[in-house]
């Protein structure tokens, strides 16, 4: 995109935006210093997650892993437990793997060259954010907020779900970014999208760059950006069971090494919508060599929404009456743990709801009375 084609006074736009940001920026914990590691962690956490949600997780994560080396040296399960509740666990795994690479290949210094793009999980936006915010390099950092703001300012009607459109926005930012204050400029665009140029009912009268906005001039700001809707989200019916043995231990299982929620722990579960629990009892004997007695009434209903999938889980409770095959249990992904130790394992949000609703309730009386 050539400068002469931009129908905007770039210097005036920069000045209006930066002045507003300097007066209105939020006091966020990752903005208090330019440590590239902290900025990196914050940007990964902020992907698909609201700022208010991220703040306590970020502060706890930093207390556990205050340096890049501390995170690199941590066990994966410890990292996943610290991430528990944020969702999109591949973000945590990729971050963990990438900081190990930085420690080994870059002497624990986050690279400030094109090498940063080679790190696992570091896409164009994250790289641009680190380069501009931590190192003061005028690199574009284009996320959903930025695309929404710029689509309105420049009346861009391209579908923002396409990679080609993102590249157009990156080229645009390269033309308009402040060379002297790239950190503040990129953060100002993000902040404007978060606070003023919101998806619905943007506060145009409060906008510091309203005079530059072509969409507002035409009265179509709420129609932008253009994003083609995805296909309908699928629903999956599940049955889960919280089982205790005679010693009061709880049975949990680990998910596979790859795929959705990889390596996280959960209560045993299967697909199914019927109220017949024989499929669960058969599953437990076949997969874990256990003879179980399950209370036939559903004890809890859990609904969890992913970006592409909805789980509807009927939760049952029961007891393990006998280990029919010890070798089957040992070879399975299931194990017994003390009830009070279940919290030490990283669980997805859906099964945390089960933990809170049943395991932390009066489960012994529910089962044995």
UniProtKB/TrEMBL annotation:
It comes from Evansella vedderi. Signal peptide: none annotated. PANTHER family: ADENINE DNA GLYCOSYLASE (PTHR42944:SF1). This is Adenine DNA glycosylase. The keyword Iron-sulfur applies. It catalyses: Hydrolyzes free adenine bases from 7,8-dihydro-8-oxoguanine:adenine mismatched double-stranded DNA, leaving an apurinic site. Its EC number is 3.2.2.31. Residues 45-195 form the HhH-GPD domain. GO terms for molecular function: hydrolase activity, acting on glycosyl bonds. Belongs to the Nth/MutY family. It comes from the Bacteria. Pfam families: EndIII_4Fe-2S, HhH-GPD, NUDIX_4.
